[in-house]
Specification:
Distance between the termini: 45 Å
CATH superfamily of the largest domain: Histidine kinase-like ATPase, C-terminal domain
CATH architecture of the largest domain: 2-Layer Sandwich
CATH topology of the largest domain: Heat Shock Protein 90
Strand content: 15-25%
Number of helices: 7
Mean pLDDT: 80
Order of helices and strands: HHHEHHEEHEEHEE
Length: about 250
Amino acid sequence: VTLQQTESLLRSTQNELVQAGKLAMLGQMAAGVTHELNQPLAAIRAFADNAVQFMRRGQLPQVEENLEHISGASAHMGKIIAQLKGFARKSGDAIAVVDVAQTVEAAVLLLRNELHQQGVAIEIDVRSPVQVMGDVVRTEQVLINLLRNAIDAVETVEYVADKRVTVIVEHDAGEAVIRIRDSGPGIPDEVAPHLFEPFFTTKPSGKGLGLGLAISSSIVQAMNGRLSAHNLPEGGAEFTVRLPAPAPGL
């Protein structure tokens, strides 16, 4: 057996292992598909209800705006389903330039109704315009998962007057950095080691399958990035996504 044949066999084996990992991940994503689709579905309902109210008042520009949001959310759901269908393919995923700030805004829009219902204020602090190479839909899924996690954390603390989630976007040492902070109770010491394990959750039954953070971590790793979490000195938790970005705005 020649060295070239050995290298070819190793590459083939590695590809099969990657494919096996993708198929395992697909099983997790399929189990959590309702979790991924719930946000745009809830947004569609809220926008539709708003459109009805504006229609009754004769406020046609606002009706048109809400219908455009419904169209956008529907398209987003279609993209998620297409991603799930295509995730198991051996061919590489389509890579494109992702504007991080725009992706954050799109994720926040889908959660706007939930933020309002829970009385949670959100602040977006774009300190530097950053672009990365990756998949727009999956990047948005990561942000939705992390934002939803932050909202749930803040919701559990009744005595906090200022229920707030902050998203910071910046460029640091060749990386795009997204920090999602919440004013919740923080991460318990016994929970921290298991945060990114599939099906691990501290939420009540019916509030999640424990897949959001595991899926997010896998997506970020596939983009050659890192997802980490820690407690803040002033209270609350911070989840940090780091993705390769050569320079602000590429």
